[in-house]
């Protein structure tokens, strides 16, 4: 950053020029983030149209920005920022379409199956108790109380 952060922020934000400013690319990323959070987190949308809309807007804006601006004359950063913004928008689209939405649909199906199973379980009458519900004491060892009681009874004199 030549000239310090404050001076460049004033140039980019307060003295905004479409042909030479990077601030609109930042605002585009903020718009994209807020729109997708609103659509998928707050509205719980489960369709691809929101990501398609934001990708189309982002791509069109970035293409117009590259064609109409002087970004390429500003050095390597003028090339890198629009290209990375464009690539990230398409990676987000791919990731949502092929990873996130199918995984959420799978989780929802699992949840519905568990709820359905618990509803059916309430209707089923309990049957015979399983083996785990019975308690059997361990077998008596040789010389246990019963045998010693019998021996003691036979040894006692009868009066």
Automatic annotation (TrEMBL):
It comes from the Eukaryota. This is STARD3 N-terminal-like protein. It comes from Sphaerodactylus townsendi.
């Amino acid at each position: 950053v030549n000239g310090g952060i404050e001076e460049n922020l004033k140039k980019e934000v307060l003295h905004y020029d479409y042909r030479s400013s990077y601030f609109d690319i930042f605002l585009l990323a903020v718009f994209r983030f807020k729109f997708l959070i609103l659509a998928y987190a707050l509205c719980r949308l489960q369709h691809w149209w929101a990501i398609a809309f934001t990708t189309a807007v982002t791509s069109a804006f970035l293409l117009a920005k590259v064609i109409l601006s002087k970004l390429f004359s500003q050095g390597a950063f003028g090339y890198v920022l629009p290209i990375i913004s464009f690539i990230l928008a398409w990676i987000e689209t791919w990731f949502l379409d092929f990873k996130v939405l199918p995984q959420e649909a799978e989780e929802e199906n699992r949840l519905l199956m568990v709820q359905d199973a618990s509803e059916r379980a309430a209707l089923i009458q309990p049957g015979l108790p399983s083996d785990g519900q019975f308690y059997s004491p361990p077998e008596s060892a040789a010389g246990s109380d019963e045998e010693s009681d019998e021996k003691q009874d036979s040894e006692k004199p009868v009066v």
